[in-house]
Structures are given as C-alpha cells and as structure tokens.
Amino acid sequence: MKRVVSHIHSFTMIETKGKTLTLQQLDAQGNVFDEIRMTK
Which terminus of the chain is less hemmed in, N or C, by CB atoms within 10 Å? Predict the structure, then answer.
C-alpha cells in the first residue's frame, strides 16, 4: 500500500552509480525513510 508522508519535512536525494539509479527520501535528521533503486 502506497502512502503520502506529509507530516515530515524531507529532502529527495538522487544518486547514480554505473547502471543503478537510487532515489532516497531523507528526513531533516538525514534518516532514509523511503528508497527506490532502478538498474538498467
């Protein structure tokens, strides 16, 4: 089940390494609370 987290101030970090793209959602303290990885 997908949900929207609107009560936490957050940042989106995008990183690429080789053929892997990683998107992470970080809270204000730097803790990852959501992550997606895609590999080609």
Answer: N
